[in-house]
Amino acid sequence: MSTPTSDILIIGGGVAGLTLALDVADHLSVTLVRPALDDQGASRWAQGGIAAVLSPDDNLEDHVNDTLIAGDGLCDEEAVRFTVTHGPKAIQWLIDNGVPFTPDPDPAARYPYHLTREGGHNARRIIHADDATGRAVVEALVNKVAAHPRITQRSDLTVLNLLSDHTGRCIGAQGVDSEQRLQALFAQHTVIATGGASGLYRHTTTPAPSSGEGMMMAAELGATLCNLEFQQFHPTCLFDPDGPAFLISEAVRGEGGHLLNEAGQRFMLDLDARAELAPRDIVARAIDAQIQQGTQGHVWLDIRHLGDTAIRHHFPTILAHCASRGMDITRQPIPVVPAAHYSCGGVATNHVGATDVANLYAIGETAYTGLHGANRMASNSLLECLVYARSCAQHLLSLPRSLSQSIVTSNYQASTVQPNAHVDLGALHIMRREMRSVMSQYVSIVRSNQGLAAASKALAGIKAELEGVDKAMSHPESVRLKQAITLAQLTVLAASQRHESRGLHYSIDWPDHCALSGPSKLTLAGSGVAE
Question: Where does the FAD-dependent oxidoreductase 2 FAD-binding domain lie (predicted)?
Fold first, then answer.
C-alpha cells in the first residue's frame, strides 16, 4: 500500500475539480484523482452553456430573480446572490484559459460572444461553445492541468471511501488501482467533486453517470446531506431504446424549438405562459403526462421551422449525432423523453465548499450550496461548479500553513476491502439494474405515498440480497453498489418526509405547497437507514 501525501486531494475531474486544481496548484501540491470514465461524466456532456450576466443589456438582479423563481421557494437567496455576482469573473477566467466560446457574428453585438436563452431565463445570458460547451471547457482545462508541474493526476484509482483520524478529521481517501491493489492517498485537505446521483435511475442524459458515491463517502464520515428528493429530469433526452443516452440541449428550445404531442400539437402553450421555456420541472411533468396519455412513449421536439442554415449553425453536434442514428432533424422532429439529469441536493456546504467534517470539502454537483432550491435553472450548473471551485481555492490558499503541516497517518481505520475477493459480478450487475428500475418506477417525476413505500421495501430487499452475496463487503464493486443503494434509500426517505409538492418533487398525495417548507437534512447516523 502506497501512502503519498499532498496539500490538496481532489476526487473527481469534471469542471469543478479541474478548476480547483488549476486555481491552487501554483502554491499548493495537488493530487487529482480523475478516472478515465470522467470523460463520460456530466461536465463533458453539458451542451447548452453557462449562465452569467455578461451583456450590458442584462443585470444581476434579473438573474437572481429568475433563479429564485425556478427554485420554487427553496433557494438560499444568499447563495444565489453569491453565485450570480461571481459569475462574470468566472467566465472571464475560462476565456483567459483558452475556452473557445462561440463569437457573436453580429458586428453590432453588445457582447463579443454569442448568448442564447434557455428555460427560466428572462434574457439571453447563456455563453456557449456551439452546442458542446462542456466538452470545450473540459478539454481546455484538462490540457492546462496536464501541463502543470504541481498537479499529480491519478487516472488509475477508483476511490471507495474517505479516511479520518481519531478526531474525525478527514485525512485523505482510499481506493483500488487498475491492478486491483488497495491504496491510500493522504492530504491536508480533501475535496469531493464526484458529480451527482443520476446513475440511481435507469434512463439518464449521460453515458456513465455517477450514483452519488461521493455523497455517501462524505455521509459515512458524518457530513450532512440536503434535499436529496430534488432529482432533476431533463425534459428532452433523445428517445432511442436501442442506443446510448444523448441530451438534446435546452438551447434547442431557447432558439425556438416546439414541443409536440402525438397529434402534432404544441401542448405547453395551454399550461404555462412561458411555453417551452418554462422551468424544467414544469416542462418535464408536462411531457411525462403526454407520454402517459399516449402510445408512442415519447413526444416530439420540432425545429424544422428554424431552417437548415440556423440548425447547422447553432446545433452542429446534435445534428451530427442524430444523423448518426438515422434522423435528419432539419426535416423531421426529434423524439424526446425526460431522463435523470441533475441532483439539486447533495453534501451540505458553505460558500467555500466546507462540509460538517473538518478538512473535507465538496464542490460541483455533489454539493448542496442552496443555489438551486427545489429545481435547477438551465445552465446554472457549470456556473456553480466554477464559482464554488474558485471560492474553495481562495479559502484553501488563505489558510495558515503552520496550522496544518502534519497528518497522522498511522491511526486511521483501514478498509475491509479485498480487491481480489471472489464475488459474482453478474449478480451485482443485476442488483444495480433492479435498484435503477425501482427508482425509475417509484421515485421519479411523479410520486405517491404508496410508491415510495414500495420503493423502500424493494431497496431494503436488494441490499439484503447484496449482503448475502458479499457479507463482508470485500469487493470494490460491492462497496460502490452498497453506497448507491443506501443513497437511494435516503432519497426515498427524504421524499417520504416532504409532505408537499414543490419543484422537482411532485406527489399525488400532497399536491400543494407547504407554507413552512424548508430544506431537508439527513445524516446517515440519524436516518434509520442501516449502513
Answer: 7-382
Quick check: is 415 in a domain? no
Per DSSP, the three-state class of 441 is helix
Q: Rounded CA gap, 465 and 460, in Å?
A: 9
The pLDDT tens digits of the residues spanning 114-132 come to: 999 988 899 999 999 988 8
Determine, yes or no, domain membership for 18: yes
Q: Could you give the angle at the alpha carbon of 505 between the alpha carbons of 502 and 510, nearest 5°?
A: 70
135 included as an active-site residue: no
What is the torsional sign of CA 157, 195, 334, 52?
negative
Domain of 326, in residue numbers: 236-338
Residues 88 and 205 in one domain: yes
CA separation for the pair 368, 381 (Å, rounded):
12
| C-alpha grid cell, residue 189 | 485537505
Q: Would you state the cell numbers that stand for residue 56, as one nine-digit string?
A: 450590458
Neighbours of 140 (CB within 10 A): 18
pLDDT of residue 396: 98
3-state secondary structure of 485: helix
Q: Give the CA dihedral 402, 153, 215, 370, nearest 10 degrees.
A: 70
Q: How distant is the alpha carbon of residue 102 from its chain centre?
A: 24
For residue 360, what pLDDT is reported?
Answer: 98
Over the Cα atoms of the chain, what is R_g?
22
Confidence band for 474, pLDDT divided at 50, 70 and 90: confident
Going by their DSSP bridges, the two strands 346-348 and 367-368 should be labelled as parallel
Tally of domains in the chain? 3
| In 197-352, alpha helices (H) | 213-220, 251-254, 280-293, 308-314, 316-324
Q: Choosing from 280, 436, 447, 498, which is the catalytic residue?
A: 280
Which residues, including other chains, have CB under 8 Å from residue 153's CB and lie 6 or more apart? 13, 32, 34, 145, 146
